[in-house]
Amino acid sequence: MPEFDLIERLRSRIRERGDVPLGIGDDAALVQPPPGEQLAITTDTLNSGVHFPPETLPADLGWKTLAVNLSDLAAMGAQPRWCTLSLSLPREDAAWLSAFADGFIALADAHGIALVGGDTTRGPLSTSVTAIGSVVPGGALRRDGAQVGDQIWVTGQPGEAAAALALWQAGRLDVTQVAGEPVHERLRQRLLRPSPRVQAGLRLRGLAHACVDISDGLLADLGHVCARSGVGAELSLPALPPISAPLATAPAQLHAWQLGGGDDYELCFTAAPTRHEAIVQALGSAGVAATPIGRIVSGHGIVVRDQAGHPWQPPRQGYQHFVG
Amino acid sequence: MPEFDLIERLRSRIRERGDVPLGIGDDAALVQPPPGEQLAITTDTLNSGVHFPPETLPADLGWKTLAVNLSDLAAMGAQPRWCTLSLSLPREDAAWLSAFADGFIALADAHGIALVGGDTTRGPLSTSVTAIGSVVPGGALRRDGAQVGDQIWVTGQPGEAAAALALWQAGRLDVTQVAGEPVHERLRQRLLRPSPRVQAGLRLRGLAHACVDISDGLLADLGHVCARSGVGAELSLPALPPISAPLATAPAQLHAWQLGGGDDYELCFTAAPTRHEAIVQALGSAGVAATPIGRIVSGHGIVVRDQAGHPWQPPRQGYQHFVG
Questions:
Q1: Pairing of strands A38-47, A232-236
Q2: Does B126 touch chain A (CB under 8 A)?
Q3: CATH class, range A151-305
Q4: What share of chain B is helix, strand, coil (3-state, %, to 5)?
Q5: A113: distance to nearest CA of chain B, Å?
Q6: How many interface pairs between A and B have CB atoms less than 8 angstroms apart?
Q7: What's the mean pLDDT in A174-199?
Q8: Residues of A with CB below 8 A from B38's CB?
């Protein structure tokens, strides 16, 4: 079914490059890794009704399916190089495929990642991307390098994707069109068009001790860093960057989104306090804001303290995927 | 859902190796490519009811989902290195996951390919693997190198997977258990436990001019080689290796399976006639039989000639996937 073949469709839109001696069209693609570098490899799958609302626009889905993988490369401080794309689609739909391709290619071109293969199959709507980046040996940002005394930072405003999800679930956000209200449109974009922090990740190499991207929620993902590094963490509730959209919601709900919401694709990283200024400058040059929100301590687990210094108990941990 | 996480489950069963400085458990894995080599990258997805019978045993599915990707690396003459695995599963099922893992790991270990990442998601049953192999620059077997005068070869007995599929569709082959009859068991294995011709592909480097694996059917896949190489082909119907199981079926049906059946994962390759003996020896040392079935001619398209030299018209082209 050539009309149905997204990969064949995308082939003509992909520029030739020196690090792809053989692109789409053979049993496998051939790529040329940068001499001496290591490769970072990641895979993420998105299923309709589980990871995105079934009515998500195809261009948004094309964007997001690549964004969640680029975010993993960002968290490693890796330079995006090549990717593959598997798409399962229930029926042939040329207009749908064309819009999906537009969203995918727009983000791929923005980050210089080359699509080198994949397949289009008939089945329930689902996408799976494998992304490969490169990094010099020893240069990768890992989860296991956090040190006691490190500052904990987060980019952007985590919680906005969860706020958008809640609005959608409450029937107050239509994801199938650009929202009329600017406030809602910003949230819609945070949910469906996340910006992977690739440039931020690259500039944090040599500055951050540990890094993770926020896909499962700030507490859950920082928890992974703590577990892998053998340390604990203290977070300051008032230090969390506020959700930028003014929402008529109880503060406890806002904090739950900030600490437990998933799908943000911001970076959470730790670094020596002496690197504070260097980090602000490095991220500023990447156009990304970051906020110190706590510090790494000995022990294990994460304590969140409120304005008065009392431990605060979040109402939920982590992120519940859509149930479609 | 850690119990549900296949990748976490598999982690403890994967040996450490020098070319995987950081395995499963971070935002991405880190791998170290062999100095100076190129990498071959391929992805294939299998959807329940489309690419395999819904009742397929989990161990068979674990095997096959990796086999179809290893077959693509084999067709490139690439040495398998690393892979990722995405699994979507409708519900938590520890026994199912365990059996799936057994089948996957058995084949991975046999070919020395390391699982370095992936994800387990909730959704309709589907698997997607990305496999990466290595090859010295200029050493890959491509589809575009066939030359006029080349012999055309095929490994094994293409058509057996299609015969097994037809038996299953006719209710005469139970895929959920080892078949009682040896004839049927051999066919069941050809459909569900294909042997990717990795060693054969490695030994064909420097001997074959072009190579493809037979996933869509011999005529369809040889057609890809011809189109990419700008040549035509003539095949000899009596030269085709016979389906090994004696089936009470009209010869026309047998020929249709041999020429049009998919899912065989044998290799079809072309080489100079002067390399005949070298090829027999090289493949023999890999334990693989191969048969010369025709030759590359100028022009385009494929002509199949019967015993009398008359053109033979296959009743169908290519391979129809299951309709579940």
A1: unpaired
A2: yes
A3: alpha beta
A4: 35, 25, 40
A5: 14
A6: 190
A7: 88
A8: 21, 30-33
CA distance A12 to A241: 43
From the CA atom positions of chain B, what is the Rg in Å?
A: 20
**A213: closest chain B residue by CA:** B27
User: Which residues of chain B neighbour A29 with C-beta distances below 8 Å?
Assistant: 40-42
- Residue A234, classified by CB atoms within 10 Å of its CB into exposed (0-12), middle (13-18) or buried (19+), is middle
What values do phi and psi take at B15, rounded to 5?
Answer: -70, 145
Instruction: Give the number of other CB atoms < 10 A from CB of residue A307.
Output: 9
Question: Which residues 219-248 of A have a C-beta within 8 angstroms of B?
Answer: 228
CATH topology for A3-135 is 60s Ribosomal Protein L30; Chain: A; (3.30.1330)
Q: Which sequence spans correspond to the domains of chain B?
A: 3-135, 151-305
Residues B214, B263: Cα–Cα separation, whole Å = 7
Q: Which residue has the higher pLDDT, A177 or B201?
A: B201
- Which pairing describes strands B232-236 and B301-305: parallel, antiparallel, or unpaired? parallel
- Nearest-angstrom CA–CA distance, A246 and B80: 52
Q: What's the ipTM?
A: 0.94
Q: Of A321, A320, A270, A318, whose CA–CA distance to A296 is shortest?
A: A270
Per the CB < 8 Å rule, is B78 touching A28?
yes
Contacting residues of A for B75, CB less than 8 Å apart: 27-28
Quote the minimal CA–CA distance from B140 to chain A in Å.
8
- What pLDDT, on the 0 to 100 scale, is given for residue A8? 82
Q: Tell me the chain A residues in contact with residue B318 when contact means C-beta distances shorter than 8 Å.
A: none
Are B211 and B141 in contact by the 8 Å Cβ rule? The answer is: yes
CB atoms A28 and B117 under 8 Å: no
Angle at B169 between CA B167 and CA B172, to 5 degrees: 45
- How confident is residue A56, by pLDDT bands cut at 50, 70 and 90? very high
Give the SS3 label for residue A72.
Answer: helix
User: What distance in Å separates the CA atoms of residue B167 and residue B157, rounded to the nearest whole number?
Assistant: 17
b/e map B58-77, b = 16+ CB within 10 Å: bbbbbbbbbbbbbbbbbbbb
Q: Please state the pTM of the whole predicted model.
A: 0.94
Q: Is B259 left (phi over 0), alpha (psi -120 to 50) or beta?
A: alpha
B122 shares contact with chain A (CB less than 8 Å): yes
What mean pLDDT, rounded, does chain B reach?
A: 92
Residue A321 has pLDDT above 60, yes or no: no
CB B225 within 8 A of CB B270: yes
Query: Do the Cβ atoms of B37 and B137 come closer than 8 Å?
Result: yes
Collect all residues with Cβ–Cβ distance below 8 Å to B146 and sequence separation of at least 6: B209, B210, B225, B226, B229, B231, B270, B296
Mutation choice for B interface testing from A1, A20, A41, A267 by most B CBs within 10 A:
A41
Tokens of B116: 């370095």
Q: Is some CB atom of chain B closer than 8 A to the CB atom of A84?
A: yes
- Give me the torsion for CA of B52, B58, B60, B66, rounded to 10°: 80
Best interface-test mutation with A: which of B7, B27, B37, B91 has the largest number of A CBs within 10 A?
A: B27
pLDDT higher than threshold 50 for residue B324 = no
Q: Which residue has tokens 């009515």?
A: A55
pLDDT band at residue A319 under the 50/70/90 scheme:
very low
* Interchain pair B40, A29: CB under 8 A: yes
